[in-house]
Amino acid sequence: MRSVVHTRQGEPAQVLTLREEPERPRPGAGQVLVRMRVRPVHPGDLAGVEGLPELWEQQSDARTPGVEGMGVIESVGPDVHTLGPGQRVAVFPAPGTWAEYVVVAADRIVGVPDEVSDETAALMLVNPLTLRMLYRALDSALRGRQGSVLQTAAGSSVGRLVSTVAVRHDLPLINLVRSASGARKMRTLYPTLPVIATCDDDWRDQVRRGAGRAGIRVVLDCVGGAMTRDLAELLADGGTLLSYGQLGSGTTPLERLPLIQRSLTVRGVSVLQWMSRPPKERARDIAFALDLARNTPDLLEVAASYDLADFRAAIEHARRPARTGTVLLTTAQSADPGQGVAR
Question: What is the pTM of this model?
Answer without folding.
Answer: 0.92
